[in-house]
Please model this.
Amino acid sequence: MGRTQIKENREMTTVVKLDGLIKKYDNKAVVDGLSLEIREGEIFGLLGPNGAGKSTTMNMVCSLLKPTAGTIEVFGYNNRKDINKIKPLIGYIPQDLAIYDNLKAWENVELFTSLYGIRGQALKDAIDESLDFVKLNDKRNAFAKTFSGGMKRRLNIACALGHHPKLLIFDEPTVGIDPQSRNFILESIKAANKKGATVIYTSHYMEEVEAICTRIAIMDNGKIIAIGTKEELKDMVRKDKNEDISLEEVFLTLTGKKLRDYTEG
Amino acid sequence: MSRIITLTKNYLKLIFRAKSVIIITIVGALVVIAALTNVFHTLLDQAETGEDFTIGYEMSEDSKYSYAEDYLKEGFEDEGLTVVKYDNADPEKLLRDGSIDVFIDFGGDDYSITGRSNAEIDARIVQYVLYNVDHVMNGDTGSTSVNTGSIEAAEQPDADTYYCIVQTVYFASLCSVFLCLIYITERRQNIGIRFRSSTASGVHTYLGKLIACVLTTWLSMILITGGLVLFLFDIKLNHPVLSVAIMMFTTLAFIAFGMLFFIIFRNTAASIGLLFVVIWFWGYVGGCFETYMLSSVSQTVKQMSPLYFVNRTLVELSVNGSSYYLMPCITVLTLMTVISIGLGMFITAKKKEV
Model:
């Protein structure tokens, strides 16, 4: 794909545009008429209780799921017609680790990068850069099965970076890891954003979202119930201007305190 | 194409890193071959001795021998021969497929004896018995016209040749087990999401798995196990290139067939279990345990098994240098391969949501 074409498509600086997006399973809408725009250079936080439809939305943006209705545009490309133009532009970091335990760190990155058609010296450079980025280059020859939880999470990220995506989608990347690894991952996300990548970040950890996201949307029951910067969201629920309020309080006020028992499928 | 090569390389790494599975498969095949060869040695040797053989005959209504039919049967049975009467039989077919060793066609005033080319002694015994009967009945045997002939029929293989060939084929057909190494890893480690979010298509991942598994089986079962078996048991193949080519084709067909199970069923254990049952059944009726020559399974049931065609072709090629089953075997394997790959790719593409 020509770089010029991408630039032309970025003129509106909208990276992701969702319009009336619906996803139904057995006639039950998991995502219900979602409309949203994410702009270039943002770290966009997507918050919501379990079963709110965050992962389903992200899966549709990544072309892993077919919407029941509505349109998705990524960098100006329609994700039904231009799927092969969209995929190289996205780096998806799934919530569950998706790495081969029986491959070495560099072999994992090599495999998943070469699936995008990258070869030769460019591939070698991509492996080095990706492993450097997550500080695993000194462990490149170790098998993934010997890694700690935090190292596996970092390798999971490296595997999505090799093809130099313009849009990074992190689906709860810090689940079950130690504070050092969490901090490292958050710093890495900010660094990737500084390098020019637009980031979509979903998490249950409010302090993480508060720390790195430039704009936040709160989803519930398949719909966006609030969107804005963290200060704009806080203003929505503040009773007076001087009230000190956390993002968690905003979240609980908007989505309620009732437990959300949720089963997949 | 480059994505298929990349994926094939990756799957080969994963399979070869599970060395224990490959070693167990190779050693297991050798042990089973040695055991079956040993156990069935006596049985197959007995079948070859000529001490007990089967005579088929047909008696025309106006034959001068018809009134002595019971006496003839008695005479043959006293010599330890099994006698089967046929009506409108095709002696050539019966002799070729080994149902009988000698066929006697009693005409009006004559009879003709046709035997398998490798059953000369049997034919001579029959001729001797008939001569005696004729002598008692007619006194002067010079008035009876006797025709003798022979049919090029299948040689019977010895136990070493038979089991070395069919068990190498059987274990090669079971090698779709290598696929479970790939599928279990991919499903447990959630790898599918990476493939689906990349620009690699379902066809790329399908072909990557198929090629890796086929290459591994060719190397481990056809070359290593097959080579060791030929060397250790001193088996001579009449047509080594053709025989190896058929084994390689069989591997491709069975792995493509095995992949269908893994694609259709999400549950890997269910896939493996069902696949084993199907291949075991085909092996059972196709002569992988009980030889197809001595098996009591009907011909119709035998022909339900692709392994019957493969075994019969390879054994006959090895023993006789040719086989009437060659073309049916290639046809069956081609159908199996084309249908399995076509269906496999279709289902893989359908399962990919977008």
Observations:
- The beta strands of chain A are 14-25, 28-39, 43-47, 69-74, 77-78, 90-93, 167-171, 198-202, 215-220, 223-228.
- Chain A has a mean pLDDT of 84.
